[in-house]
Automatic annotation (TrEMBL):
<feature type="binding site">
    <location>
        <position position="176"/>
    </location>
    <ligand>
        <name>pyridoxal 5'-phosphate</name>
    </ligand>
</feature>
<comment type="pathway">
    <text>Cofactor biosynthesis; pyridoxine 5'-phosphate biosynthesis; pyridoxine 5'-phosphate from D-erythrose 4-phosphate: step 3/5.</text>
</comment>
<comment type="function">
    <text>Catalyzes the reversible conversion of 3-phosphohydroxypyruvate to phosphoserine and of 3-hydroxy-2-oxo-4-phosphonooxybutanoate to phosphohydroxythreonine.</text>
</comment>
<feature type="binding site">
    <location>
        <position position="155"/>
    </location>
    <ligand>
        <name>pyridoxal 5'-phosphate</name>
    </ligand>
</feature>
<keyword id="KW-0808">Transferase</keyword>
<keyword id="KW-0718">Serine biosynthesis</keyword>
<feature type="binding site">
    <location>
        <begin position="76"/>
        <end position="77"/>
    </location>
    <ligand>
        <name>pyridoxal 5'-phosphate</name>
    </ligand>
</feature>
<dbReference type="Pfam" id="PF00266">
    <property type="entry name" value="Aminotran_5"/>
</dbReference>
<keyword id="KW-0032">Aminotransferase</keyword>
<keyword id="KW-0664">Pyridoxine biosynthesis</keyword>
<feature type="modified residue" description="N6-(pyridoxal phosphate)lysine">
    <location>
        <position position="200"/>
    </location>
</feature>
<dbReference type="InterPro" id="IPR015421">
    <property type="entry name" value="PyrdxlP-dep_Trfase_major"/>
</dbReference>
<keyword id="KW-0028">Amino-acid biosynthesis</keyword>
<dbReference type="InterPro" id="IPR015424">
    <property type="entry name" value="PyrdxlP-dep_Trfase"/>
</dbReference>
<dbReference type="GO" id="GO:0004648">
    <property type="term" value="F:O-phospho-L-serine:2-oxoglutarate aminotransferase activity"/>
</dbReference>
<dbReference type="InterPro" id="IPR022278">
    <property type="entry name" value="Pser_aminoTfrase"/>
</dbReference>
<dbReference type="InterPro" id="IPR000192">
    <property type="entry name" value="Aminotrans_V_dom"/>
</dbReference>
Length: 365
């Protein structure tokens, strides 16, 4: 078996012990004579799996009792419309929602919400090519916003809010955490709603996690479909329809793996070491590699960078793949390269990348 170091942005690398356990249990989960993919979602075995997954996630994140944990589908993209459908207009007595735009994903969220309700752009760093977070003075937040939406880690531009983000607003914060949920501890109670697709830092594609404070459910207009209504989904324990059972099972194993590692403080230390090794490599290359993001806002999970000589891109990619380093091509809208170094990427993988990059710069610089 030859596994590569996989730096894909998502779907992405999963922890090897989790994949091994999945393999071992694939045909017969705990003596039931069937695999998880083959089980009824309403049976005793799967009920135990989803309940344990929720309990472990709550323990890892310290989710307060007045928040619902929903295991949904449709990806973060579905949430771009589900959030306004539940929290805007009818639900907000005509009040608008404020959107903070710091990269492609928060911009997409804003665009989608604009189709469904009254929405304002409360800050944007697009004029600076999304290379930083807004300064405090740049926020134009309305006093009566229904909610304030932000993307706390922009996967393409590599811009990340600090874990203790504070915005000058009393409105509930609604955060897209798709690409860094579970990468570090943070205070869930500072947010009204947190969401993310699983396929980056949590588990397989097909599962979308939503953590929503009780008072933000039950506000959707009557015509909002049940499958789009947080209150209905919560009342049905995420089983209004068949949930993504296999993805929930694998995510549950990832939660256990994180607990055994020592929880979110432990993984945050490892993630900080990985990120600082990679940024140090970029910064000491005397301009051979460049990351355009202001150092204080650099993402610990997604590290985009460009080669000063773009003519070397093809050889960088070919040679890195030959060295067992996979998935480094940047997003098409950004170009260059991107290394996604999620929880499941060990320090050894980042060290292998750094060694390759140093060597490539020496040979081609
Ligand atoms: N938000 C962020 C921050 C993302 O990185 C992505 C996917 N790359 C999305 C939203 C869209 O997610 P999905 O494909 O799960 O709908």
């Amino acid at each position: 078996m030859a596994r590569v170091w996989n730096f894909s942005a998502g779907p992405a690398v999963l922890p090897e012990p989790v994949l091994e356990q999945v393999r071992d249990e694939l045909l017969d989960w705990h003596g039931t004579g069937m695999g998880v993919m083959e089980m009824s979602h309403r049976g005793k075995a799967f009920t135990g799996i989803i309940e344990a997954a929720e309990a472990d996630l709550r323990a890892l994140l310290g989710v307060p009792a007045n928040y619902r944990v929903l295991f949904l589908q449709g990806g973060a993209t579905q949430q771009f419309s589900q959030i306004p459908l539940n929290l805007l207009d009818g639900a907000s007595d005509g009040r608008a929602a404020d959107y903070v735009v710091t990269g492609t994903w928060s911009k997409k969220a804003l665009t989608e919400a604009q189709r469904l309700g009254r929405v304002r752009c409360a800050a944007s760093t697009e004029a600076d090519a999304f290379s930083r977070l807004p300064e405090a003075a740049e926020y134009d937040l309305s006093a009566d916003a229904a909610y304030v939406h932000l993307c706390t880690n922009e996967t393409i531009h590599g811009v990340e809010f600090p874990a203790d983000v504070v915005l000058p607003t009393a409105a509930p914060l609604v955060a897209d955490m798709s690409s860094h949920l579970l990468s570090r501890p943070f205070d869930v109670s500072r947010f009204g709603l947190i969401y993310g697709g699983a396929q980056k830092n949590i588990g397989p594609a097909g599962l979308t996690l939503v953590l929503v404070r009780d008072d933000l459910t039950g506000r959707a207009a009557p015509q909002v479909p049940g499958l789009q209504n947080y209150a209905v989904e919560a009342a049905n324990g995420s089983m209004l329809n068949t949930p993504p059972t296999f993805a929930i099972y694998v995510a549950g194993l990832v939660f256990r793996w994180l607990q055994e590692l020592g929880g979110l403080s432990a993984i945050a230390r490892i993630n900080a070491d990985k990120a600082s090794a990679l940024y140090a490599c970029i910064d000491r290359s005397a301009g051979f590699y460049r990351n355009p993001v202001q150092p204080a806002c650099r993402s610990q999970m997604n590290v985009p960078f460009r080669l000063a000589d773009e003519n070397l891109n093809a050889s960088f990619l070919a040679e890195s793949e030959a060295a067992g380093l996979f998935g480094l091509k940047g997003h098409k809208s950004f170009g260059g390269m991107r290394a996604s170094i999620y929880n499941a990427m060990p320090l050894a993988g980042v060290s292998a990348l750094v060694e390759f990059m140093d060597d490539f710069a020496r040979r081609r610089g």
